[in-house]
Specification:
The complex is a heterodimer of chains A (356) and B (275). Chain A is an alpha+beta fold. Chain A is built from 14 helices and 12 strands. Chain A folds into 2 domains: 211 residues, Aspartate Aminotransferase, domain 2; 129 residues, no CATH class. In chain A, a hairpin with a 2-residue loop joins β4 and β5. Chain B folds into 2 domains: 92 residues, Elongation Factor Tu (Ef-tu), domain 3; 123 residues, Rossmann fold, CATH 3.40.50. In chain B, α5 links the parallel β11 and β12. The chains are: A alpha+beta (356), B alpha/beta (275).
Chain lengths: 356, 275
């Protein structure tokens, strides 16, 4: 590369005034199905399909269920419908082929999406994920106010994304810096072209400064040293006592897997009878005894300790890391909130490191 | 767009009652194009759907060389297998696959071959046994050892009689518990090792059966001097998708459905969880 301005500047950057965002968003809503953060209750938020910008709350706390996981790989999904027809069957695939804008995604969830892309779309391509993914347009909002449980900085997944988004918005004073990551993102900008002005290198530098400040001053979680945890989990030199302790604290509720945006395990079953019904898939969890129990009653992971060990082997071992290009944690902190036994990535990482 | 999870339709052409709880099903795809396209390797498996009861993986019990149909032998133990047993000739099921890797039959060429099957573990080996019968000149001495709980639990009884008469293989069978009419060997499979002579370092062993049998057989084979990488087994795990996505069949970072189901003992030994 020659000169300083290539690199980051190769991505187009724009500015939009905060006051104009609603009108721009309404333009997007006219053309696309849009899911965005909405306020539900006093201080709780959820991503929902919105009818107008008025439904959207851009000052929001990231919800406990990852919006991108819930859209691309929902908690429950109808795969097929079947109906008996004489001796034969009528079987229909249930594929949702519609463009969708996910507006206000956080960097951690975008990182989780890139992780899921690799998992679901390499080797055998998961058809249900693929169809929704090719239709998905992502608008990321950098985090200026992380929650107390966030540690994306330790996972190198936030508070702002480096790549993989269609658009990324970062709040500067009274306006947003808009980074255009793809042609699809550019299309969204065109829907409100009169609201956008060109941004300068100075605006970009201002964004970088603000995000650095957020990184170093606003995260409250103790640092999660992934590299050491990866080493200990991989070499399996963590004492049995540590796993026993973690196993005894786990209530096998599975919430860690449900809230984890990189957890992708599922089960499949038929809803209906032997003449008509639906084949569905739902999230599953390796924390459940039934996850590996065979019909004979034999269970290769018979005790909870082995299941906890399994989960963290999957998240942290070097073998998975080389397969996926990164470890299986984006630092969203959801397991910190959900686990009643206090077993979460940060805590396990510390236990692995200290071997106690 | 092709749907990875959409089963193709196949008709049950024949059902053979093997034992009180085990049947052998012969399937042919409804669409001839599907049947022609269905190429598989010995050791691979398919996912069978009975709509309303679900879907589960089963090993193929036929050699891919014998085209035009495929066979699986299934014991009725769970929801899906019981629903499958209730079906009749002419009924239709859904099939996805073939999935998984294969038995290393190329590497085994020119070597002696030992098969050790226990109970319902014989059917997956049968796909390779037939393949080797069809390519008999590629392999040296072939020995087949088969054990079941009782004479009534032996599958493929007619075929076993044929194997016993074959001059170009050695076939021995044993049962854990005999009956009044049983005149053959009694005892668990490893007792048969005393009746055969093997050139252990030059033999490939293919072992399939209940976990406890596999464990003791492998111990004996290692004592006899078999190379770890020449002891081949096919693993089972609770499994949903068959394509490396649902996560159930993972053993450490290996997935039985895509990295297996066929593993050699060296690989099994190095898995970070017990196989």
């Amino acid at each position: 590369m020659d000169g300083g301005e290539i690199g980051e500047a190769s991505m187009k950057i724009k500015l939009i005034k905060e006051a104009n965002v609603s009108e721009w968003l309404n333009g997007i809503i006219k053309k696309y199905k849009v899911m965005a953060p909405t306020k539900i209750g006093k201080n709780d938020f959820a991503f929902k399909a919105v009818k107008s910008a008025g439904d959207v709350s851009l000052e929001f706390l990231n919800p406990i269920i990852s919006p991108v996981k819930d859209y691309l790989f929902p908690e429950k999904e109808v795969m097929l419908t079947y109906r008996k027809n004489g001796n034969s069957w009528d079987v229909e695939s249930n594929l949702v082929d519609q463009e969708m804008v996910l507006f206000g995604l956080r960097s951690c969830d975008l990182a989780a999406m890139l992780f899921m892309d690799k998992f679901f779309l390499e080797g055998f391509k998961d058809t249900y994920y693929e169809v929704k993914r090719k239709n998905l347009i992502t608008v990321v909002m950098s985090c200026r106010e992380p929650m107390e449980t966030c540690f994306c900085v330790c996972a190198d997944c936030g508070p702002s994304s480096k790549e993989g988004f269609d658009l990324q918005l970062t709040e500067l004073d009274g306006q947003y810096l808009v980074e255009i990551g793809s042609a699809k993102g550019e299309e969204l900008v065109k829907l409100g072209s009169s609201f956008f002005s060109d941004a300068s290198e100075r605006n970009l530098a201002e964004k970088e400064r603000i995000m650095e400040e957020t990184k170093y001053n606003k995260f409250k979680m103790p640092t999660t040293y992934f590299s050491k945890a990866v080493r200990h989990v991989t070499t399996d030199d963590i004492s049995e006592n540590v796993w026993n302790k973690l196993g005894s604290r786990c209530m096998s509720c599975g919430s860690c897997s449900y809230v984890c945006p990189t957890c992708t395990c599922f089960t499949v079953y038929d809803e209906g009878d032997l003449t008509e019904g639906k084949r569905v898939r739902t999230w599953d969890s390796c924390m459940y005894g039934g996850f590996t129990r065979e019909v004979s009653g034999h269970n290769p992971r018979a005790v909870q300790k082995e299941r906890v060990q399994r989960r963290y082997y999957h998240k942290l071992s070097y073998y998975y890391l080389t397969k996926m290009g990164c470890h299986g944690c984006v630092g969203c902190g959801r397991c910190v909130i959900s686990c009643l036994g206090g077993i979460d990535m940060s805590m396990v990482s510390k236990a692995a490191r200290r071997n106690e | 767009m092709d749907n990875l999870y959409l089963p193709l339709k196949a008709e049950i052409k024949d059902i053979e009652q093997e034992t009180f709880d085990t049947k052998t099903f012969t399937f042919v795809f409804k669409d001839k194009k599907d049947q022609d396209r269905f190429q598989y390797e010995p050791g691979q498996f398919i996912e069978i759907s009975v709509f309303g009861a679900g879907e589960a993986p089963f090993g193929m019990a036929t050699s891919p060389i014998r085209k035009g149909y495929f066979i699986t032998t299934i014991r009725a133990v769970g929801k899906l297998t019981k629903a499958l047993h209730a079906l009749k000739v002419g009924d239709e099921v859904g099939i996805r696959g073939p999935f998984g890797n294969k038995f290393p039959y190329e590497e085994a060429r020119g070597k002696d071959i030992l098969f050790v099957g226990g109970g319902i573990g014989l059917p997956p080996l049968r796909s390779l046994i037939h393949y080797m019968f069809d390519n008999r000149k590629d392999y040296k001495n072939i020995t087949i050892l088969y054990g079941a709980r009782t004479p009534n639990d032996l599958v493929y009884k007619n075929e076993l009689n044929e194997w016993a008469k074959k001059q170009d293989i050695k076939f021995l069978v044993t049962v854990d518990v005999g009956t009044s009419t049983w005149q053959g060997q009694i005892g668990v499979v490893p007792v048969l090792f005393k009746q055969i002579h093997l050139d252990a370092p030059n033999t490939f062993a293919f072992v399939c059966g209940p976990p406890i049998m596999i464990k003791f057989v492998i111990q004996d084979l290692l004592k006899m001097g078999f190379k770890e990488e020449n002891i081949i087994s096919t693993l089972e795990r609770y499994m949903k998708c068959g394509v490396g996505k649902c996560g159930h069949c993972a053993i450490g970072h290996k997935y039985v459905c895509v990295d297996g189901p066929v593993f050699n003992f060296k690989q099994i030994k190095n898995l970070p969880e017990k196989a």
